[in-house]
Design brief:
The protein is of the alpha+beta class. 60% of the residues lie in helices and 11% in strands.
Length: 576
């Protein structure tokens, strides 16, 4: 296995698992040379690969270096600044931004590859460039023409960076608790309040979720009345805005990523979208950020796996490299298997998002308006939108939990040296932990997915898996049979136990998510195995392991009821 950042999973998906012909036809019409377009994509990604190799080498010995606050200015460690400058010099800091603003206009799938590669090289740097594209995309979608012209070319050039300012002391997962106030005075908007745990809080452009003073009291405690406001640190006339970073946090991981307390003291801002529509606008940014965090988690997991694999091959005990020990080999195999499984879910979801976005673009065009199959395409778009809303939290939930597990196994492979604070294995695990927390904890992601299941997304997903793998019965009869049994028997039999009691359903949200992920990934790996001989052993091992897990989770769900919660109260001594 080489050390290339543009890995074989990316190559397989780019070349064989995305319907580029349809994508480009929907976006631009029939006169597109798909081969040339893909060659351009490969060229961009290869450049990212080369830069990431340099970034990783420079960052390796500087992981412990912290962000500092100097006279109110956030200062990142030198290796973070150098890594950002390398990407900026190459013009690679805002890939999805439209070409009219000097961006590349690349699909989400390509941006996910990019973020995963950067996260593998330096996960702290990834948080900065990940927000770069996310913030720019929200401005592109919701900003006025004036704001877009003023800010977006500077995002594309790397001159400006962005942050997403949501969290407050009393408003973490529950954004209805936001009290930062937006006040209008003589047609201008001003912000007052404090945000905490703001990633890249030293950025020049803040997207702030604030409560409109006009509806402050009646909207308090809900997400109604929230507006999304662009708040720059320097106003268009060159004057300093009243935005201040009052503290930089010290964390157990991602030390080179600024995590800040940001205060707004009647700072002027500019509305994005409509008043009161901030929560909906922020959801776009949050959903893209969740996919970005999934990519970050996979990048860290890949780095941890390669570090462990290399160590196990050269560490000799009892006269042989420890990789020859069956239990060590099993640990490494689990690390590889789970990392590739998380990729399969994420890449497939992103490909679906890209195709659906291309379909939305087509339906809004003159070509789409006169399409005789318009009604069918509208239905396809809405159906896919429901699947995307369901799969997005699953991507974040799965990839981040997998990353925690893979990086922990990496420490185990290294033994005592892996527990040392200066070891790369320890660094990777420390960096991975946050991924299960920010942009919504794993528990929140499972709850979101459960909500989408109740709208019919679960049955649509299971039906799609069955339809996709049924033609694969001839080459993979046993494996297809196991997946279909997991869907038709175990998942189906467990669902009635969840229908009658919302609390019991929430209690089992993670189990249901794991079952769905297991069969979805199994189906995707079978589709990949049809294309790539190297994926056959992976699909076989995953399905044999995880279909047993589906059965166990299903039996656990079907055998219980809400009385479990009462027992938990007793164990925790919450009952008098």
């Amino acid at each position: 296995m080489g050390n290339e950042f543009l890995n074989s999973d990316m190559q397989l998906f780019l070349g064989n698992r995305m319907d580029w012909e349809r994508y480009f036809t929907l976006r631009r019409g029939a006169d597109v040379n798909v081969v040339d377009e893909l060659e351009t994509y490969r060229s961009v990604l290869q450049t990212v690969d080369d830069i990431c190799s340099d970034i990783a080498a420079s960052a390796r010995d500087h992981w412990h270096e912290e962000v500092t606050l100097v006279n109110g200015r956030v200062v990142v460690p030198p290796h973070i600044a150098a890594g950002y400058d390398k990407l900026r010099t190459a013009g690679l800091v805002c890939l999805p931004l439209g070409t009219e603003y000097n961006g590349y206009g690349l699909p989400l799938l390509l941006n996910i590859f990019y973020l995963e590669m950067i996260a593998r090289a330096d996960s702290s740097l990834m948080t900065i460039v990940g927000l770069q594209a996310g913030v720019a995309s929200d401005i592109e979608k919701y900003g006025s023409d004036e704001l877009k012209k003023q800010y977006l070319p500077r995002f594309a050039s790397g001159e400006l960076q962005g942050s997403m300012d949501l969290t407050e002391a009393q408003a973490g997962s529950d954004l209805g608790g936001i009290v930062t106030r937006m006040t209008e005075q003589e047609g201008r908007l001003f912000l007052d309040g404090e945000k905490i745990f703001i990633t890249n809080g030293g950025a020049q452009v803040h997207l702030v979720l604030a409560r409109d003073a006009k509806t402050y009291e009646e909207s308090k405690g809900s997400t109604n009345g929230l507006s999304l406001v662009l708040c720059p640190t320097v106003l268009p006339d060159g004057a300093a805005n009243r935005v201040q970073v009052s503290r930089v946090e010290s964390k157990m991981g991602i030390h080179g990523s600024p995590t800040c307390v940001v205060a707004f003291d009647h700072a002027e801002g500019f509305l994005l979208g409509r008043r009161g529509g901030g929560f909906r606008a922020m959801l776009d940014l949050m959903n893209n950020a969740r996919l970005g965090v999934a990519a970050q988690a996979i990048g860290v997991a890949e780095a941890a796996f390669r570090e462990a694999l290399g160590y196990a091959g050269q560490r000799v005990q009892f006269g042989a490299p420890i990789i020859e020990q069956p239990l060590v080999k099993s640990l490494l195999t689990q690390m590889a298997l789970n990392t590739q499984a998380a990729r399969a879910l994420l890449y497939r979801t992103c490909a679906m998002i890209d195709l659906n976005e291309a379909l939305r673009f087509y339906l809004a065009s003159e070509r789409g308006a006169s399409d005789p199959n318009r009604a069918t395409l509208d239905d396809e778009y809405e159906r896919n939108l429901g699947l995307i809303r369901f799969l997005t939290p699953l991507c974040k939930f799965y990839a981040t939990e997998i990353s925690n597990d893979v990086t922990r196994k990496g420490i185990q492979v290294h033994g005592g040296i892996g527990y040392m604070a200066e070891s790369p294995a320890a660094h990777y695990h420390s960096d991975s932990i946050i991924t299960t927390i920010y942009e919504g904890t794993s528990e929140i992601q499972a709850s979101f997915a459960l909500k989408e299941m109740s709208k019919g997304a679960l049955f649509t997903t299971l039906e799609r898996i069955r339809d996709e793998i049924e033609p694969l019965r001839a080459p993979f009869p046993e494996l297809v049979g196991q997946v279909c049994e997991a869907i038709n028997k175990w998942i189906s039999q467990s669902l009635p136990a969840l229908m009658g009691d919302p609390q019991y359903a929430l209690l089992n949200a993670k189990r249901v998510c794991e079952m769905v992920i297991d069969v979805f990934v199994a189906g995707e790996l079978l589709l990949q195995a049809r294309l790539d001989e190297a994926k056959r052993a992976l699909a076989h091992s995953f399905i044999h392991r995880r279909m047993l897990a589906v059965e166990m989770n299903a039996r656990r769900i079907a055998s219980g009821d809400a009385s479990r919660i009462r027992r938990y109260d007793q164990i925790l001594r919450l009952e008098s």
